[in-house]
Amino acid sequence: MRLIFKQIKAPLGVGVMNRIKQLFEEKKNILSIYYTAGYPNTGDTIRIAEALEKSGADMLEIGFPYSDPVADGPVIQASSKQSLDQGMTLKLLFEQLKDLRKSVTIPVLLMGYVNPVLQFGVENFCKACAEVGVDGCIVPDLPMVEYEEFYKGCFEEHNLSNVFLITPQTAEERIHKIDGLTNGFIYLLSSSATTGKNLEVGDTTETYFSRIQNMKLKNPAMIGFGISDKQTFDKACSYANGAIIGTAFVKAIADGNIEENVDDFMKQFKP
Amino acid sequence: MKYKVNEKGYYGDFGGAYIPEMLYPNVEELRQNYLKIIDDADFQKEFHQLLRDYVGRPSPLYLAKRYSERFGANIFLKREDLNHTGAHKINNTVGQILLAEKLGKKRIIAETGAGQHGVATATVCALRNLECVIYMGEVDIERQAPNVARMKMLGAKVVPASSGSKTLKDATNEAMRDWINNPVDTHYIIGSVVGPHPYPDMVAIFQSIISEETKKQLLEQTGSEQPDYVLACVGGGSNAMGMFYHFMDDEDVKLIAVEAAGKGVSSGLSAATTYLGKEGVLHGSRSILMQTADGQVVEPHSVSAGLDYPGIGPQHAHLFKTGRGQYVSITDEESLDAGLLCTQLEGIIPAIESAHALAYLEKMEFKGGENVVVCLSGRGDKDLDTYIKYFNL
To answer: Residues B379, B81: contact at Cβ < 8 Å?
Structure first.
């Protein structure tokens, strides 16, 4: 706790140990949970983060909703729409996260599409992330070349990790390039799919996971898309540093009994 | 070549390929191959043969006498409405289906708004015996029933897009999701000059046949291949880009792009993107789009389903920003009135999309004798219900 408190106080950018990096150094089989900010109710964003940390999640990915989420399946789309209809904006999200680090110590990433970031302003976005204690971002439709040219400097200045996705179709050369550009982890998609499909580890998926393992990348890898429960989580952990659950969790909290639902959902992962 | 795409996939500040990694291999495959394939002599031969024998090109450039008298200028109509399937959309689908075959794809997907692009895609899929899935907004399925039936007859599976506003924008999202889930065997035939690079350029190249022919036809009919004005309607902007393409670098030719004002640009029910929009990213490219301060895409409105889109292609954004093109808008009512006028003066029932371009003639001032080309992008059969309701026919 004290160590983390110190990090926040340290000058931005220089000599700060990013929470993500620290987590991967200290722990195996990392469980990261995705949820949509402002869903099921606008005021739930922080409550969910606190409940998740309390019940054992290692890392959080908070989705900032977008009207046209092309990489997402129906469940996350619907949660995004509901959140937007209820008035969620990126500005409001940063207000909600103002005291994030008073109660949440695990790494937090923001995940969303590039257009809201552009309208907020890249510089302002990075600054706001750093101010509230966000450790990294996942922006699936931000291309690598754009990131390198226009975003990287700003992200690094604010000590933000930018996480890239790779799929079974991503060429080896490109994976190495991604590995060189990022400093958090690599988001390994179990297959080329939108979110909310089931993980099926057939021979080809296994070959792909092993291929990535054998590439000896400098960054750790997390498997995402298709992980829904303890069983799929464990399977994913045998190939990577951990895994990310999104759709299944978003479904589990739909009725608004946050603490109870989070606890119920997370029970299966307790040793 | 000032207005064409650069090697990074940009038109000035606009364009690029803002796509999730899942789409990268597909789009990259296309980027590396599209020019090579299109420039190939065999491809060109087959493409032009199909355009001639199947689509019915060249489409006539018709000097509309009574229109000309009314406006005091030589008004030429580029008759894309006479193409097989009734609109310019088929130019692009013929090109892309041949390209998909060269890439070894077995399955075709497409989005559609009014249903014209869906029909044009289903048509070429029937022609080349390829599996075809069309995404169409639930709302559009209801208001364009005949086109849905045509697609089904042609053997396509029509999948309703039930997310968001249930119109073209959402059909495009669904098609992109399909492509993400079927990355290897599927080609996505985007119907307009939108989407990630190289789509805007590729679709513009296939549609550029419109201005290529127009130049030749003008030379034959007027002794000069250079008109004073060219006009076209803009939703995503494919017929306009086809109409502008070979005139872009000739700064003496004025380019007028007509957007749909819907119920009026300030009414909250509009699709006048350049007037209401800001720079942003939608459907894989950086362009101008209608959005909230928070960057959420705003639902557009137009009586014409084909113009009911919250963005414009990146090349249009570039023409707009540089001032090379003049972007104007026409309301629902103005377009319907213009549709009736065209029917009564020239015996041509235009698509309501094209009627937007025709309507702008009323707002122009001519000295007399100017040569004006209007792209009559489609025929109005599909819009009869709307005309019937509006005019109590």
So the answer is: yes
